[in-house]
Specification:
The chain has 1228 residues and is of the alpha/beta class. It contains 36 helices and 36 strands. β2 (35-42) and β3 (45-52) form a beta hairpin. Mean pLDDT is 78; it is low at 243-247, 537-544, 715-735, 961-1013, 1028-1038, 1122-1192, 1202-1218 and 1220-1228.
Length: 1228
């Protein structure tokens, strides 16, 4: 769970690197925020910096500050920065294990470069380094196949020991990424005779257990290779160097390399140390020829990007990999295997990141011209170049894949409007818009809550347009769920998600079952689905089925169960690792995958569904989007409710599609909702989105003026003691001004915020008291005694001193009691950190608990809370009664029991609350606040957030039809309401017994609505009475939900009406009322957290939008490796990634000519440091190697003396100064 980010600046008129890193770091921090590091290269210097951040520090701010302090401003171009944000997985969070990783450090190496003046090869001492940042998990490596032997996979512990012997140094850190750095150190040999010789001997080993070649043998071979290169003629040296850019034919190049290899082999046979070593291993001639050929090809072919590609083809795991080297100035290689990675280009800069959003944030996001999202197994290289070949910025770029053998291909960008190699960003509706950094400052959670009304309206409106992408996707989903031809499938719909997305999916799946009884639905965690589809029954499991098999119906394998099914992947980010890999597994198994995300520009959309992001590409009809974009807040509020509304609209759209296109063949088992029911639900949904949500998220004008909700309720009650019913709207017709639920949520939230901040304030008061009295030298009571009496007695003085000691010991309690008196709170509640219990349906309590816990993720021990959630209709009593103490805070979400289908749920909620409230000590129990629509509140309730300002139309189950037309005045009291004001059960029974339905439209009765403030038990008894069993005519009062009796053109019986109404009421609770309570909970807990985080600012404040972990996107391979294949793959599954063949084949492929397929040799021979030095060479640089050149053309070899190695000047790049800045910011 890490994130890569970086940049290459080649122009002067570009955003500042510090600002770019800050903006990119703020987005990438959603992948983890425990430690960071970067390597910056400019002006012949490579600087490495690592740090661990403290708990409450912002990692993006620390990254920018460290860069500014280490590198400074105004750095000359080109400038490259490779940064990494880490969340520890394979090792602890330490500076040593932070990225970037370098295996060999502080070592000089003699490289061979092309002197631009003489056009001859020359030697130069430089620092050599291979720097790696890695996001993902490195699990194993096929050592045998990598070096042309039989396949032999080894785990990291074996590979680490093997590399320690070959590199002659232990790894400087633990974990898996340092092993990847070691393998790349070994495989990267271009331009370095020592590295090329070392690689050649490793490739010649007989097996993994073989002993490595002695150091003196490798040094002798490197010296021979270096001396041979120095004798190459200037025309051949120039051709070999620039042939890598395609200026030499493949045959000529092969002939040149063959001559070099023959000369090196001849020298190896003549060298005593090397010949003795090779002769002991086998045929001297054959081994020397093989070693020479491998060394020459490694010197010319094993460049950085080729080494990266070779490594990835034999590595097992997931890789978002970035590689840089001191021998390749400002050249970067980025690669992607089962981890996202994207590269963006703009005027004068190139940026890359694990998060696509990191490319679109800040000033560089506004200037971004195009981007390339790396496909599975793709390797992309870029380095400074000339603007003529790449107009948007002066860089060179090339790409290759680990899935095939084709060499690197140059990427082109010839137009600012179109490109075949890049997705254009500007004016592209498929690509996410630029992100403003201001969204990441201030009260981030509060901003999200304030945007909820507009965001939900946008989601709702996207389904009203039949040509919108969401509407077309809904129609496609309906056809897939209910095909015209019956399909032989075990499961119709598989819904997956993780954490909040899963909880939203579970609620939606339950509602879909109510609306479409015939559908066979499986809803499960992405991890469980991934485990079931990738589990392997082998000897170690004795062929037993894993627990994941219980996700799908028995009688067939999981892969068979999902074949032909519709899979809906719910993930706001669209790249949560379990959901991403589970969707891949579902697609391989033959399921039709649909995506629900916060935007269309996601990894699931591109990698699984196949959405193209090229300018002008069509929208995929398998993608649903809320268009809420990237949200930095770890406490999810806007994202969850937006997905909830989108899922609601999907349900409505599928039902409407069925009713519109399959009316004749549709049965009640296919769709339990008729057209009038859908119209009623749409009416309720519109009222919720257009009006109710705004009342939940914004305060009323009176609230801004400082009038509390309780005071306004009291003033309203004094002028209006009764409330009548408006029969046109079905809502109370009282003239009392509505009280926004937002006001009540804020009022009660501030009160609970005082509970939360009490321990810290009491502690600070105690500290102040101790400091003041001890400094003054006089305790409080002693000072009073001295002031009251001139000469108090000894006993009195001792007694007062004892009381002063008691006061010192218990002053925090005294301070807390004083705070409670001032704030008018319960005095005898338990002191210390409060426990908060959230009771509501699973979706609400799970989302709210996660929201509250993340709000307090950075709180201190004395101003935090413990939060737990339970379902009052299920397990709440068994799981929370033992946690109740004096002062426990209980927030109860209450279903609207005025509806027939919800009365049992309301009774269960209040019964659970009553049992919790019954636990008392010293006459004090828990504090209970309810959240709901109904004004009824039992006497045990200490506070209520009531949605009585909502003008919800009345339901048919609330209406008693008679013959009169007079409005019924019903008693209404402000909160708190007493049960004595409730209508009696007998009155309700009488009203229920007298209810009848008129069959005549002309004589349709005006309804009176049962909105009495009555006990839930009384209403429950009333609903048990069955109304008159008469046919129901179509109601003329369309504002009455369920009042229409039509089913096609025929009237419905009372049984049909009540049955259909039950489904409508259930869907209202699951899709609308639940949403409104959830938003109210968000506002309530945000107020608590805001008060707790700002009451002691700036000394003990904390951010509420993030936690110490900082993860919003889970990118670990839970519960199985991403490389694991399905146990029973289908024929249409994706082709496996071919990692590597043999070293010889690899070198032969690389020697083939392809325009733009290789780097110029000069790119590898100057700039920064290296790690491995060979101390002495067998032959001096200025001596004749003793080669017999008679068999070669005279033009191939330089006839004059070997040129002296010059001091650094303008022609030869100077040595790179490698600087390490190791810093730890761990708290003491």
């Amino acid at each position: 769970m890490c994130g890569n980010l970086g940049l290459l600046l080649v122009g002067d008129d570009v955003p500042k690197a510090v600002d770019m890193l800050l903006a990119m770091g703020q987005v990438t921090s959603m992948r983890g925020a425990q430690s960071f590091g970067f390597v910056a290269s400019s002006q012949g210097r490579m600087r490495v910096h690592k740090a661990v951040v403290r708990k409450r520090e912002d990692i993006a701010v620390n990254l920018a500050r460290a860069f500014k302090r280490t590198v400074g401003r105004g750095v000359a171009r080109p400038l490259s920065v490779c940064a990494h944000l880490r969340f520890a997985t394979s090792s602890k969070t330490t500076r040593r294990d932070a990225h970037p990783h370098v295996w060999l450090q502080n070592v000089q190496s003699k490289v061979v470069t092309l002197n631009p003046t003489t056009q001859l090869f020359t030697t130069h001492w430089v620092s050599r380094a291979v720097v790696v940042t890695h996001n993902g998990d490195f699990e194993a490596f096929d050592l045998g196949a990598c070096f042309g032997r039989a396949s032999k996979c080894v785990d990291l512990s074996v590979l680490r020991d093997w590399l320690t012997q070959r590199l002659e140094a232990p790894p400087p850190s633990s974990g898996d990424s340092i092993v990847a750095a070691g393998m790349l150190e070994l495989l990267f040999a271009a331009g370095d005779p020592w590295a090329a010789a070392r690689l050649a001997f490793v490739a010649s080993e007989s097996g993994e257990a073989a002993d490595p070649a002695p150091r003196e043998v490798i040094a002798a071979t490197a010296g021979i290779l270096s001396s041979t290169l120095l004798r190459v003629a200037h025309n051949v040296a120039s051709e070999l160097s620039y042939s890598l850019n395609g200026q030499l034919t493949a045959e000529t190049r092969r002939r040149h390399l063959s001559r070099l290899a023959d000369a090196v082999a001849q020298a190896l046979c003549a060298d005593l140390k090397v010949s003795n070593y090779l002769a002991a291993r086998g045929s001297l001639v054959d081994l020397s020829a093989a070693i020479a050929a491998a060394a020459v090809r490694g010197f010319f072919e094993a460049d950085l990007r080729s080494a990266t590609r070779q490594f990835l083809r034999r590595a097992h795991g997931s890789f978002g990999l970035v590689v840089a080297s001191s021998l390749a100035p400002n050249s970067l290689v980025v690669a992607s295997i089962k981890q996202p990675m994207a590269v963006g280009i703009g005027p004068g800069f190139v940026v890359y990141g694990s998060e696509r959003a990191a490319l679109h944030v800040g000033r560089h996001g506004e200037a971004l011209v195009a981007r390339r999202v790396l496909s599975e197994g793709e390797v992309v290289w870029f380095a400074p170049g000339v603007k003529e070949s790449f107009p948007v910025c002066a860089v060179r770029m090339a790409t290759a894949s680990t899935n095939d053998d084709r060499p690197f291909r140059a990427l082109t960008f010839s137009s600012m409007t179109t490109s075949r190699d890049f997705d254009m960003v500007r004016d592209n509706p498929l690509v996410m818009p630029p992100i403003r950094p201001s969204a990441f400052r201030g009260d981030v959670v509060g901003k999200d809550i304030a945007e909820i009304p507009s965001a939900l309206r946008k989601v709702r409106d996207s389904f009203r347009d039949p040509d919108s992408p969401n509407s077309r996707a809904a129609a496609t989903l309906a056809r897939a769920l209910f095909p015209s031809d019956e399909l032989d499938r075990v499961v119709d719909l598989v819904v997956i998600g993780a954490e909040s997305s899963l909880w939203l999916a579970e609620q939606w799946a339950a509602n879909v079952r109510s609306a479409f009884p015939k559908l066979r639905i499986v809803v499960a965690s992405s991890n469980k689905v991934l485990a079931s589809l990738t589990a392997v029954a082998n000897d170690s499991t004795c062929g037993a089925q894993t627990p994941g098999y219980t996700v799908f119906p028995s009688g067939c394998s999981p892969a068979e169960a999902v074949r032909g099914a519709v899979a809906l992947v719910v993930s706001h980010s669209g790249q949560t690792f379990p959901s991403l890999n589970a969707s891949r597994a579902l697609k391989r198994a033959g399921a039709a995958v649909f995506s629900v995300a916060g935007l269309r520009d996601t990894v699931v959309a591109s990698d699984v569904i196949g959405q193209s992001f090229a300018l002008g590409a069509p929208h995929s009809d398998h993608i649903f989007s809320t268009d809420t974009g990237i949200r930095l807040a770890e406490a999810a509020s806007l994202t969850t409710v937006a997905i909830h509304v989108l899922l609601t609209e999907i349900l409505y759209a599928v039902a409407l599609e069925l009713r519109a296109n399959r009316r004749a063949a549709l049965s009640d088992d296919d769709c339990a909702l008729v057209s009038s029911d859908l119209a009623d639900l749409r009416q309720l949904q519109d009222e919720c989105v257009d009006t109710n949500v705004a009342m939940l998220c914004t305060p009323t004008p009176n609230h801004r003026a400082g009038t509390s909700p309780a005071a306004r309720r009291s003033s309203s009650a004094s002028t209006d003691d009764s409330a009548s019913i408006d029969l046109e709207s079905g809502a109370p017709s009282s003239s009392r001004p509505p009280i926004y639920p937002h006001d009540e949520a804020v009022c009660h939230g501030r009160r609970w915020g005082n509970h939360v901040t009490e321990p810290f304030l009491a502690f600070l008061l105690s500290v102040a008291y101790v400091l003041a009295t001890v400094t003054a030298g006089t305790p409080c009571l002693g000072a009073i005694l001295d002031a009251a009496y001139d000469h108090p007695g000894t006993r009195v003085r001792y007694a007062v001193a004892f009381l002063d000691a008691v006061l010192y010991a218990f002053f925090p309690v005294v301070a807390a009691l004083a705070l409670r008196l001032v704030q008018r709170r319960v005095l005898l509640a338990r002191f210390g950190k409060r426990t908060v219990l959230v009771l509501d349906v699973p979706q609400v309590h799970q989302c709210v608990v996660a929201f509250a816990q993340k709000l307090f993720g950075l709180s201190y021990g004395l101003n935090g809370i413990e939060v737990a959630g339970f379902n009052p209709s299920d397990h709440a009593v068994h799981r929370c009664l033992h946690r109740v103490v004096r002062g426990t805070l209980v927030a109860l979400g209450v279903p609207d029991g005025r509806l027939r289908a919800l009365i049992d749920s309301e009774c269960a909620a209040f019964l659970t609350a009553s049992q919790i409230k019954s636990i008392e000590n010293w006459g004090v129990g828990p504090e209970l606040v309810t959240i709901g629509h109904h004004t009824y509140s039992p006497a045990m309730v200490d506070g209520a957030i009531i949605f009585d300002a909502f003008k919800r139309p009345a339901f048919l189950s609330e209406v008693a039809h008679g013959t009169g037309t007079k409005e019924v005045a019903l008693p209404s009291k402000p909160f708190p309401r007493s049960p004595s004001s409730a209508a009696s059960p007998s009155a309700l029974l009488l009203a229920a017994q007298s209810a009848s339905f008129s069959a005549s439209k002309k004589q349709a009765a005006r309804p009176s609505v049962l909105r009495q403030t009555s006990t839930s038990d009384a209403r429950r008894v009333a609903f048990l009475e069955r109304p008159s069993d008469k046919d129901v005519a179509s109601s003329t009062q369309r504002t009455i939900i369920g009042g229409s009796g039509e089913k096609g053109n025929s009237p419905r019986s009372l049984d049909d009406v009540l049955k259909s109404l039950t489904v409508v009421e259930t869907l209202y609770e699951g899709r609308i009322a639940t949403l409104e309570r959830q938003i109210a909970f968000y506002v309530f807990f945000h107020t608590i957290a805001k008060r707790a985080s700002t009451a002691l600012w700036p000394f003990f404040g904390f951010d509420t939008w993030r936690s110490q972990a900082g993860t919003r996107v889970a990118t670990t391979p839970s519960p199985t490796s991403p490389a694991t294949e399905m146990s029973d793959p289908l024929p249409q599954q994706a082709v496996r990634v071919e990692r590597v063949t043999t070293l010889t084949d690899f070198q032969d492929r690389q020697s083939a000519h392809n325009e733009g397929s290789h780097l110029a040799l000069g790119d590898f021979f100057h700039v920064e440091r290296d790690r491995r030095a060979y101390d002495t060479l067998t032959a001096d640089d200025d001596s004749d190697p003793g080669l017999d050149l008679s068999a070669h053309d005279a033009a191939f070899w330089h006839a004059g003396p070997i040129p002296e190695v010059s001091t650094p000047n303008d022609d030869v790049k100077p040595d790179v100064n490698l600087v390490y800045h190791d810093e730890t910011l761990d708290a003491p």
